[in-house]
Amino acid sequence: MNLPLQLIISSVILISMKAGFIKRLTIRNYGIIDELNLEFSPGLNLLTGETGAGKSLIIGALEFVLGERKPKEVIKTGRDFSEVRVEFSQLEGIELEPFGIPGKETVIISRRIAHTGRGGTSINGSPTTLDTVSSVGEALIDIHGQHEHQSLLKTKHQQELFDRYVGIKEQVDEFSSLLNDIRQKEVTLKALKQREEENKRLRELKEFQLNELTDADIKEGELEEIQNNISGMENIERISSLLEELRSIIDSIPSNRILQASEKLTRLDRRFQEIASLSNELTTVSGELARSLREAALSIEFNQEKLDEMRLRLSFLQRLMEKYKTDYRGLLELRENLSRFEDELFFNEEKIDKLEREIKEEKRLLAELGEKLHTSRVAAKRGFEEKIEKNLSLLGMENADFLIEIAVSYTHLTLPTN
Known about the structure:
The protein has helices at 55-65, 130-140, 155-166, 169-216, 222-234, 236-251, 255-268, 273-299, 304-323, 328-394; strands at residues 5-9, 13-17, 21-30, 33-39, 45-47, 81-89, 107-114, 120-123, 126-127, 141-144. By secondary structure, it is α+β, with helices and mostly antiparallel strands.
């Protein structure tokens, strides 16, 4: 694989680009550096200087902005913060979409650290995590040196190269996608189960309240009806007296005499015909009113037992309202809300069951896919070793042995056995 060289510092540290080039590096308040702006061009760039001039600090600053953890001591003495910014250009040949970076020719990464603990990392002005920046940095450059890690020394990179040789990249991507999906579902499942545990502590109370309000058989308008009925029964004696008084007044009206006198008046003079008509209506209405009053008096019946029942019911409803600290309308709404809570608990249980079934099935598929990947790697292992040994022999290392160790790595996942 041919990698373009970008920087050689003191002939010791080499930075090779996997795509594009570092266009600009800006360092502020880092180590002994007050402020430094470096601009580079495509191809080979050399930085030289005496010992202690700060060449290693430049590499340290580059590592810092690309996600390597550094102590606060890197902040220049007397300053409150340290900040590094790096700009990569001509990145058409590298895929950055997996890191949430849309296809662009230029990527600017910046990182800031302060004594107060406040800092931040961003890519193209958007805040991001150190892990993302570190992954982007690994995708863009290699820093080679006596004490520096190289991508070829990383197990992950070694496995990626071997899988490309075996030709199982798509299957590995499928395995990784399935594994990530399982892990995400397990996180969701854990949260649902925690909520279920919390719900269990509420379930007994909610069920008691719902049962109490259901058994109470409260109905719309019942409280007002009971209060009106009780008020009516408690006033029944007064009501009877008033009805009797009205009957006496109606009975005392001399309807026949009024009717006879108005008829005589009409016979003497027809102009008083209307008076006769009104007199006739008065006789009819007074008769109807008298009948209504008699019927009302007969319908009124004082029932002490019924009154006691209504008072007990009213007292019960008042205790419920006092207990739940609400009015009668609030009791009706509470019962409805408690019913919905029961439905939500049932829905949560359904989601847990569904997720558990999905995870079990995906783990089964994961186990099958993992077995196939392992088989493919084992089958290609010796052929790859022989090719590497042949190339080592061409380099003068005839007796060199190149061995690949393939081991099954178990994750935290408990895979199904059936």
